[in-house]
């Protein structure tokens, strides 16, 4: 009996082809479910109206130019409370909510608890050795951000999703100004939480 030899591709080649077919079908299915629109093309390298010129000043729509003298005059008006410049900046405008809405975390209290979001002003000063114990019973994000007196945002004590129980040491956070600079804690949560020190 005469047999004709059949050639079989190596097993790896069959798997590779099958994977390629699955990937292309998945890509086609994914792209068919996408919707997007293409806007008007913009030339590369050209500036838009209202963008800053080379010196960093805003371009006025009137004559297209701004000078350093105009910017200095506006800054001086702003500092004097004049109408020409922008309003004088709030020293706490980096905070997510107005500083007047902050609840005080008293120095004689070692626990803070709440539900949902809130801004808390520390009456005590954290050190690098200060460790806080944290719990969260919600199902979404649990984030505690630290801020300085001037509203500068520092590091997050925690950034987790869902139920959480853990601790965070102030000295382990990447803060240039040091742990002592932390004045505010801003808590974002969807459930009950506690912070203990």
Walkthrough of the structure:
It contains two helices and nine strands. The chain has 197 residues and is of the alpha+beta class. The strands form two sheets. It has a five-stranded mixed beta sheet with strand order 1-3-8-5-6, with no helix packed on it. A four-stranded antiparallel beta sheet has the order 2-9-4-7, with no helix packed on it. A hairpin with a 4-residue loop joins strand 5 and strand 6. About 31% of the residues have low confidence.
Which descriptors apply to this entry?
elongated, five-stranded mixed β-sheet, 197 residues, alpha+beta, Jelly Rolls, single chain
Write the layout of secondary structure elements.
Blueprint: H1 11-32, H2 68-80, E1 103-105, E2 111-115, E3 118-122, E4 131-136, E5 141-148, E6 153-161, E7 164-169, E8 182-188, E9 192-196
Parallel strand pairs: 1-3
Antiparallel strand pairs: 2-9, 3-8, 4-7, 4-9, 5-6, 5-8
Question: Any idea what the shape is?
Answer: elongated
**Low-pLDDT windows of residues:** 31-91
| Average pLDDT reading | 73
CATH architecture group name of the domain at 99-196:
Sandwich
Topology as a string of helices (H) and strands (E): HHEEEEEEEEE
Task: Report a brief summary of the structure.
The protein is α+β, with helices and mostly antiparallel strands. It is built from two helices and nine strands.
